[in-house]
Amino acid sequence: MKKLLLLILAQMLAGKTNAQQTLTTDGAWCWFSDPRAVYADAMGSRIITGWVTKQGDIQAAMLDASSGKSETVTLYEKLEVDDHDNPAFAILPDKNIIALYTWHGRNEEPKGVIQNTTSKPLDISTFSKAKVFKPKTDSLLALYKKDTYTYANPFILKKEKNKLYCFGRWIGYKPNMITSTDNGQTWSEPKVVITSKVLDTNNRPYVKYCSDGNARIHLIFTDGHPAVEPLNSVYYCYYENNAFWRADNSLICKVDALPFHPSDATLVYKATPETGKAWIFDITADAKGRPAILYARYPTNEQHQYFYAKFDGKSWVDNKVVEAGKWFPHTPAGQKEREVNYSGGMTFDPISPETIYFSHQIDGIFEISRGVTQDAGKSWKISPVTRNSELDNVRPFVPRNKTAKNKTVLLWMQNRSYIHYTDYDSSILYKIIQP
Prior knowledge:
The protein has two domains: about 20-135, no CATH class; about 135-430, Neuraminidase (6 Propeller). Helices cover about 5% and strands about 45% of the residues. The protein is built from two helices and 30 strands. It has helices spanning about 1-20, 140-145, and strands at about 20-25, 35-40, 45-50, 60-65, 70-75, 90, 95-100, 115, 130-135, 150-155, 165-170, 175-180, 190, 205-210, 215-220, 235-240, 245, 250-255, 265-270, 275-285, 290-300, 305-310, 315-325, 345-350, 350-360, 365-370, 380-385, 390-395, 410-420, 425-430. Strand 24 (about 345-350) and strand 25 (about 350-360) form a beta hairpin. The longest helix has 17 residues, at about 1-20. Keywords: Signal. This is Exo-alpha-sialidase.
């Protein structure tokens, strides 16, 4: 009898962990400040993540997805109501956590980058008070004219003596890079990484980053915003050993010779009027360091198509995943949608380039599915993560720093209402994905 009760209890617990759970009923995030979630250690299901509340508070959380226990702290009260401001995280060599985030650079007065750092390893209750700094120099501003701060993307490279890197859209409205050799206590002067050939301070390349944590940081990026660039293409490069390189390992430039132009990097997808402009969602790499990317094409604003591109060592194998529907914001009646390229979103399992998660429209609701490919995206085995939902499920993300011993935890936004990135009422949900 005792064994039977234990078996029933184990089955109940297994069912609970396999069901979707709510981490917070008040949280939203964008997809250009990452990693927005990281595993806290090399095994299990403890995760550090964060979001922006509908009051504009910046919050961080420690979640144990197996037990469902979580702790939440506020890093910055009432920063602004804008989902672009979500924090991104890195775990420092001493196991303290650094959180980096920004205002959304729409302000007349540029405000800067914000960081909080814990004083005890993996203890979010010890996050410091927010420190605001402005990565800029007078000489850089004289060249690139525009002083603005949006997004933060931190990474640590062990091979460079644990140097901390942070990327964001800052001076010139362009991707910038700063580094720290003392765990974020001080930062280097910024460098503009990518720019248009003729300076245009309204042009803003969008970048997604990922790192192996050792020596390399991968970048995919666009010409600009798809609502601005009629032919928004996709490019790839990587940083390693004080230089930026193309997919074929040929040199673009040394760091001292930055910036470079999009056309200097490796072209992944060339937009045409027929196939549509593009936007980017995620990037990872296989055990050989060969990148895989997820992006969307828009033949029309209401036709969003998801694509998977994998570099095979010589060229890009680029295949369609699925028709995704259209944008997910709920356009008010009689108004024109302002963010027609807000697809539901895609993400990789970061240690399995063959496994992706994506949000797409099914019977008018955005649901999340899991896709697995064994042939570089030519065919897909698709299974449901959410179905028969009453609310939209968007912007999925698998935490970074994942190892083979970590349980696969998928997090995503669920929207009671999403009108605009400054007008939302969302939750953050999660689910342990069974092998």
